[in-house]
Amino acid sequence: xxxxxxxxxASVGTVHQALRQQILDGSxxxxxxxxxxxxxxxxxxxxxxxxxxxxxxxxxxxxxxQGRRAQVAVFDLRDLEAISAQRILLSALAATLTVPRLxxxxxxxxxxxxxxxxxxxxxxxxxxxxxxxxxxHSVTFSGAPPRIYRDIGRLAERNALYQIVWRRDxxxxxxxxxxxxxxxxxxxxxxxxxxxxxNLARHQARVALMVMTQTAPEHDPAIVRSALQLVIGSD
Length: 235
What we know:
By secondary structure, the chain is mainly alpha-helical. The chain has 2 domains: 12-72, Arc Repressor Mutant, subunit A (Orthogonal Bundle); 77-232, Four Helix Bundle (Hemerythrin (Met), subunit A). The chain has helices at 12-24, 36-43, 47-59, 77-98, 104-122, 126-140, 146-166, 176-189, 193-215, 222-232; strands at 33-34, 63-66, 69-72. It has a 3-stranded antiparallel β-sheet. The longest helix has 23 residues, at 193-215. The chain is globular. The termini are far apart.
């Protein structure tokens, strides 16, 4: 008598990581509809752990869901350019409001976040690097009005998502970022308000332009360049 065939079962974490990697490497293209029935069969799991894995992907912004329908998020270069330009301008405004209020403890906090980023890079841990990077930048706009603070946070989340997708989750390997962060700290410490805004703008614009150049070298990122010029002036 033949043994009944069995499908190896997978944990929520396994399903989440497998789908996440396939979205990042393009095996599951942007815009693809994900069949929960097919995925449940493929991984040998019930709907409950599968839905939890999809919920985790939705929290990361990698998929969207409507009812029982799940779809890989659509990533548009024009969307990234608009997000980057908005972030440059709002961050510069927020920095001018925040820097005069910064205390020595805030500067020390920024240095601590830089150390955390360095450790995360050494351990090839992009998740921890992103957490530390976001915490670092949040100090520079912490003195902004709540509405602006929230808007910058949302723009930063969406911007990070594009980096995850288009840089294959490796922004933590960008060595130039460490030097740019050090310049931001130095200008914050001296309370050079305009210089902080300019250093932030240059850093954010460079990263955005790098992502766009790698993705679509034929695209002219005029909106990002215009936002940068508005902040740095004639520099």
